[in-house]
Amino acid sequence: MALKKYICVHGHFYQPPRENPWTGVIEEQKSAAPSHDWNERITAECYDPNARTQILNNQNQAIHTVNNYAQISFNFGPTLLSWMQKASPFTYQAILKADQESLARFSGHGAAIAQAYNHMIMPLANASDKETQVVWGIQDFEYRFKRKPEGMWLPETAVDISTLEVLAEQGIKFTILAPNQAQSVAKIGSNDWTDVKGGSIDTQLPYLCRLPSGKEIVIFFYNGPVSNDIAFGNLLENGVNFANRLVAQYPKRSRASSRLVHVANDGETYGHHHAFGNMALAYMYYYIEKNNLAKVTIYGEFLAGNPPEWEVKIIDDTSWSCFHGVERWRANCGCHLNFEKENSQEWRKYLRKTLDWLRDNLIPLYERSMLPYFKDPWKVRNDYIHVILDPSEENKSRILWAQSPKGLPSVDREKIIDLLEMQRNAMYMYTSCGWFFDDISGIESVQILRYAARAMELAKKIDGNDLEKEFLNRLSSAKSNIPEMKDGKRIYNTYIKSFMVAAAKKNNV
Question: Of 106, 468, 138, which is closest to residue 302 (Cα–Cα)?
Answer without folding.
Answer: 106
